[in-house]
Amino acid sequence: MEQKTTLIVRGGGDLASGVIHRLYKCGYQVLVLECERPSAIRRKVSFGEAVYDGTSYVEEVTGRLITNIKECPKVWAAGEIPILIDEAGESVKSLKPAAVIDAILAKKNLGTNRDMAPVTVGLGPGFTAGEDVDYVIETMRGHNLGRIIKEGSALPNTGVPGLIAGIGKERVIHSPAAGEMKNISRIADIVEKDQIIAMVGNVPVKATISGVIRGLIRDGYPVFKGMKIADIDPRAEQKKNCFTISDKARCIAGGVLEVLLSCGILPDVKTEEN
């Protein structure tokens, strides 16, 4: 008799969702732990949006908000992914997953440790393989993206986004002030440089380059000055890809999957019949 292997992924943003989607498609049972107020930019490909809407959809896979870990079996049986608000990761002890993947991408460790599961994986900087987690996955664009690190840490955060069509920091927009977001444009809109795409209070947010809005923080979100609030892809022809998992997320997902398989954590485990 076989049963599905259970994994926990901390975080439901776009890179985390690429990992979650891959693991789901490979047959694992995944529980996603989110914070009370996710701040995803690429909301159309983030399972964490279920915190606000009750459900989320990423490439034909459904995430569903639950309020108790006991609801997991019902959601899994429906072919969906349960999303639970549990910022501290308290559900880990109850569920006893085969692995915990920290995909919060906070650039620091927010509580994940090697005692949480037989295998622990941290995405990006803030973790040290062999100390607070077993493995680290490189998340910086470039030659080593998705590489598994067995000792040491990922490259430190530079604060400068990776290049897309030769454009780096200009494609990411940070809030010019503190206040509540009021979106004028929407994800997948084609915009011109200096076009007003949103307001923060009474302060306009202007497009830094021409292109397609790939990510835009949720309307009404209370932002602080300097907070990342939007992402513009200079390649207007990439409009359709605002609704699909990125190459970066898929690459990172491959690294996570390799860790699990190399550690013998398969999607299905055989159990003895009574």
Write down how many β-strands occur, each being a DSSP E stretch of 2 or more residues: 19
Low-confidence stretches: none
CATH class of the largest domain, anyone? Alpha Beta
Helical segment count: 5
How is the biggest beta sheet arranged?
A: 9 strands, mixed
Q: What strand order characterises the main sheet?
A: 4-5-6-3-2-7-8-9-10
How do the helices and strands follow one another from N- to C-terminus?
EEHEHEEHEHEEEEEEEEEEEEHE
pLDDT averaged residue by residue: 94
Any guess at the CATH architecture of the largest domain? 3-Layer(aba) Sandwich
What is the distance, rounded to the nearest whole angstrom, between the alpha carbons of the first and last residues?
10 Å
What's the helical proportion of residues?
Answer: 10-25%
Bulk shape: globular
Topology diagram in text:
Elements lengths: L1 E3 L1 E5 L3 H12 L3 E6 L15 H4 L1 E4 L2 E6 L5 H6 L3 E5 L5 H5 L3 E4 L16 E5 L11 E3 L10 E2 L22 E3 L4 E5 L6 E2 L4 E5 L2 E4 L4 E6 L5 E2 L4 E6 L13 H16 L5 E3 L4
Parallel strand pairs: 2-3, 2-7, 3-6, 5-6, 7-8, 8-9
Antiparallel strand pairs: 1-19, 4-5, 9-10, 11-18, 12-14, 12-17, 13-16, 14-15, 16-18
Helix pairs in contact: 1-5
Walkthrough of the structure:
The chain has 274 residues and is α/β, with parallel strands linked by helices. It has two domains: 2-156 and 247-270, Rossmann fold (3-Layer(aba) Sandwich); 169-234, Beta Barrel (OB fold (Dihydrolipoamide Acetyltransferase, E2P)). Helices cover 16% and strands 29% of the residues. It has helices at residues 14-25, 50-53, 72-77, 91-95, 247-262; strands at residues 2-4, 6-10, 29-34, 55-58, 61-66, 81-85, 99-102, 119-123, 135-137, 148-149, 172-174, 179-183, 190-191, 196-200, 203-206, 211-216, 222-223, 228-233, 268-270. The strands form four sheets. A nine-stranded mixed β-sheet has the order 4-5-6-3-2-7-8-9-10. Strands 11-18-16-13 form a four-stranded antiparallel β-sheet, with no helix packed on it. Helix 1 (14-25) crosses helix 5. The radius of gyration is 19 Å and the shape is globular.
